[in-house]
Amino acid sequence: MQKLxxxxxxxxxxxxxxxxxxxxxxxxxxxxxxxxxxxxxxxTTINARKICDLAGRPDCLVFAGQDRPLVRPxxxxxxxxxxxxxxxxxxxxxxxxxxxxxxxxFLISSIREHPAGAVTIATLGPLTNLGLALQQAPDIASRIxxxxxxxxxxxxxxxxxxxxxxxxxxxxxxxxxxxxSEIPIVMMPLDVTHKVLTHQKRIxxxxxxxxxxxxxxxxxxxxxERFDEKKYGTDGGPLHDPCTIAWLLAPKLFSGRHCNxxxxxxxxxxxxxxxxxWWRVSDRAPNAHVIRDIDDDGFFDLxxxxxxxxx
Length: 311
Description:
Blueprint: E1 2-8, H1 12-22, E2 27-34, H2 41-54, E3 62-64, H3 78-81, H4 103-113, E4 119-123, H5 128-136, E5 144-150, H6 166-170, H7 172-179, E6 185-188, H8 190-193, H9 200-207, H10 212-232, H11 242-249, E7 254-259, E8 261-263, E9 274-276, E10 288-294, H12 296-307
Parallel strand pairs: 1-2, 1-4, 2-3, 4-5, 5-6, 6-10
Antiparallel strand pairs: 7-10, 8-9
């Protein structure tokens, strides 16, 4: 089994990613670490616990992380995800406990305790927790198997500013640390996530799975898609974060290329931009596998097949 840590700021799409991981026996989920992002930390931590409850997994270890970026004020996204981050659902208060250990300490200890290369980290939100862990314990960089992240954009531009995708924009300094770390990175930018749209027939399929998980996922996606449908004029909104888990399960659904990615941390105009050398016009060495295309029908088939096995 693949040893996995999910670092997240749930968010409806984060919730679906967590559910996909919990529905997949290929993973040994070591823990879920929460971070401030889509909503403040207290809410992202509550939401992660609710998702564990929904999946029938109150045994999952949930660790609360950083409540603000490394050096900047926190920017949140209630305008997309609602006041709670999981607006649209009607789940009860969570029963899954929060662990006493801070998330950053958990990341460092888990990576050190397992063989080098054994642990994959899926990052679904701002990269503050991992950036701080690398600052405090630089030795873990060479021990992380890979980081599979949702973040950034190139051909699609940004979704929080003209140039920047939300997860990178919230904490560009943390992102810069990670892209300079030489950790193997697989990057799911907006260029691929905007190709997995929650058409109504796909939401109806989740609603028809016959379980509570399917019902709640349909409610989540019905709420969260409304913002992107209005913004982009599309039939359905992008389902960003589950792309990270789907890639780990079925990489043949995706295609991309190795190229160099640099994070803009100084420009007021393009702060948080992922400068992706897709066409290899610079002499900068590749530092990430950047995904651009996906079999979207295959992606949603994978989601439905796995989620039907949850409560």
